[in-house]
User: Which sequence fits this backbone?
């Protein structure tokens, strides 16, 4: 039986780690409290339309994402917004500017990358791990399910799940809670507690087509908007003829209010704010979806205190690794790279 590595957290860092584990012949198991993998890399789909949430573009020079795309056979498409890009500021719309030619996007959407990286990986949804135990004699891990208050159970094998290695790839505050409950991680529990996280709500609205004359990609602290059309040279997404999609990414203050509401109550509030900024009629959109994810960030002065390898010193050679944007940087490429490095550390300790 192939050795097993559990990856806690199925965002881009966890997915990249699982892919690397599988490439080296080991079995990867992704565990996440969410019902689908991808984290912030989500493609929202409606009847006849789809739209990416999260970052719509990445830099062609991004080494980790470029490698993952090459390994999965997906091809990024060069994107130039011919109408230019406007920045939404507190004072209004700032002058347009053009994107550089090295900005690329996935024509198939982020969902295609998530699907390619997880196609042959076991994904266990709805599992919120809050601690794990390292058996130094048997050299195996057990994990505890926070919701069920017992060890994570393998329903197929009909026994408690035991794995040979673990990669922790959840947002900083979740990692801090797990570290506080895990004896060999206590040395990093305090620095992990310095990582902040806040909800980020994204609304996707299908509306009758209009031409705002620009695409808003960056915004004031409270609202950033993107406009998707069917034109292939613009933001990737599938939109029916005569219609368009507005993607609204909400800032911290408004997000903290929206996450306390049901989607049926939150969506109209966000739509009214969006329509007001774009000068659209306040009539209800043709369709809407809301997604809320956590976003973690590490204060720069604490960065050096949180090693990706897991522990400052590890004489026992425990096959464990840390991954995530808060270990390496806030962008997608840094998070993906941290997952690959965490997998390499675990693989080295299992060899």
Assistant:
């Amino acid at each position: 039986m192939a050795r097993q590595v559990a990856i806690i957290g199925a965002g881009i860092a966890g997915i990249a780690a699982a892919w690397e584990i599988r490439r080296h012949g080991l079995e990867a198991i992704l565990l996440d409290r969410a019902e689908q993998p991808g984290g912030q890399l989500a493609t929202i789909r409606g009847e006849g339309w789809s739209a990416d949430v999260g970052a719509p573009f990445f830099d062609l020079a991004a080494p980790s994402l470029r490698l993952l795309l090459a390994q999965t056979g997906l091809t990024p498409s060069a994107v130039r917004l011919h109408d230019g890009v406007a920045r939404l500021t507190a004072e209004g719309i700032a002058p347009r500017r053009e994107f550089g030619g090295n900005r690329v996007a996935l024509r198939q959407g982020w969902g295609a990358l998530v699907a390619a990286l997880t196609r042959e990986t076991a994904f266990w949804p709805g599992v919120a791990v809050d601690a794990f135990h390292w058996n130094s004699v048997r050299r195996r891990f057990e994990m505890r399910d926070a919701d069920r208050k017992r060890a994570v159970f393998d329903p197929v094998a009909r026994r408690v799940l035991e794995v040979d290695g673990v990669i922790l790839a959840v947002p900083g505050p979740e990692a801090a809670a797990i570290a506080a409950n895990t004896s060999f991680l206590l040395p990093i529990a305090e620095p992990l507690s310095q990582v902040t996280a806040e909800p980020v709500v994204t609304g996707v609205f299908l509306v009758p087509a209009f031409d705002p004359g620009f695409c808003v990609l960056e915004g004031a602290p409270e609202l950033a908007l993107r406009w998707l059309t069917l034109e292939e040279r613009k933001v990737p997404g599938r939109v029916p003829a005569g219609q368009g999609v507005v993607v609204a990414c909400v800032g911290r203050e408004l997000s903290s209010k929206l996450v306390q509401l049901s989607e049926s109550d939150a969506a109209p509030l966000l739509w009214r704010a969006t329509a007001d900024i774009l000068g659209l009629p306040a009539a209800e959109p043709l369709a809407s979806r809301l997604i809320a994810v956590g976003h973690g960030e590490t204060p720069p002065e604490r960065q050096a205190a949180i090693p990706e390898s897991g522990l400052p010193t590890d004489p026992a050679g425990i096959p464990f690794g840390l991954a995530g944007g808060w270990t390496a940087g806030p962008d997608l490429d840094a998070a993906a790279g941290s997952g690959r490095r965490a997998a390499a550390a675990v693989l080295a300790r299992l060899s």
The CA atoms of residues 16 and 68 lie 8 Å apart. The domain at 50-62+77-107+196-296 is CATH 3.90.660.20 (Polyamine Oxidase; Chain A, domain 2). The chain has a mean pLDDT of 75.
